[in-house]
Amino acid sequence: MQNLKEIQDLRPVLALDFIARAIVEGFITGLHKSPYHGFSIEFSEHRPYNNGESIRFIDWKLYARTEKLFVKKFEQETNLRNFIILDTSASMIFPLENNRSNKLEFAIYTSAALMYLFRKQRDANGLITFSDKIDFISEAKLNDAHFNYLISELQKILDTYKNFTFRQTKLVSTLHDIADRLPKRSLITIFSDLLIDNDIQELVNALQHLRYNKHEVIIYNIIDQNLEINFEFDNRPYKFVDIETGEQIKINPLSIRQTYKQEVIEYFNEVRSRIAQLKIDFVLADINRDFSEVLITYLLKRQKLY
Question: How far apart are the first and last CA of the chain?
């Protein structure tokens, strides 16, 4: 399962943790057939034994197989502390059609897959969800119980998001709040459509707050490329409704398509350029494409950090 279309029919009968595992395993298999076929992913739950330390945690079964001394890793020895920040505002449930998947579903499945990948690499998982304020925040931990707890929180959102209409986005104030709450250096992964009322400079200031606190940041700008950038609607009148405010406008998309595309592309190009100055990775994540594009960005970022 590598994209939303493959998941859509199976979602009612498959648990989210199973879907996450299937996405990651399919991704790893695909690496061998891609330009990243030489990319190394090692999942280790042990580290070499150091002379002089306690023998209490030596894995003797592994010693019997390898004749080398290894000790089991524990939570405090994890490599990275990862926090996923998930935008659950109303604009993320676009498109609203019953037969189509939406931006929030894409973000949830990729978040779950990343959490599964974090755990496999002995990296700690944390989750923050927000709309106009922080709705949920957890510590970053490695153990299985914590992973299951976070997956259950994501599952709750999947089950209830149809009630999220008119939930507004307050990304800038949320990022400042998060920067104040997370004192330890972490890798922060943001899933949002970046549809905000604030000036771009205010967003930059909030991200700068995170960078000032030594956090590494990846932003996945979740969009439906066909509808939100290419504006591929039929040549007929439509009534467009702002999902967050209820504001309405009637218009024929063809009459504004070229102007709309130009302004939207200019906006995202400026966001990308301003964010790049902060040495933050920015990825335009199209929900019509495979999850692998998100996962490879994370792995490349992790490789740079280590």
Answer: 29
- Which pLDDT tens digit goes with each residue over 120-146? 888 899 999 999 999 999 999 988 999
For helices 144-160 and 16-31, the axis angle rounded to 10 degrees is: 110
In the chain, beta strands by DSSP E: 46-48, 70-72, 81-87, 124-130, 134-137, 187-192, 216-223, 238-241, 248-251, 281-286
Strand pairing of 238-241 and 248-251? antiparallel
63 touches 69 (CB < 8 A): yes
Q: CATH code at 301?
A: 3.40.50.410
Domains in the chain: how many in total? 2
pTM to 2 decimals?
0.86
In angstroms and rounded to an integer, the radius of gyration of the C-alpha atoms of the chain is: 21
91 alpha carbon, distance to own chain's centre = 16
Helix, strand, coil in percent for the chain, rounding step 5: 45, 20, 35
pLDDT (tens digit per residue) in 15-69 = 999 999 999 988 888 776 655 544 555 545 667 878 877 787 788 887 888 888 8
Whether residues 161 and 58 share a domain: the answer is: no
- Are residues 144 and 233 both part of a single domain? yes
Whole domain around residue 248: which residue ranges?
Answer: 4-39+79-305
| Domain match, 104 and 208 both | yes
Q: How many CB atoms lie within 10 A of CB 172?
A: 19
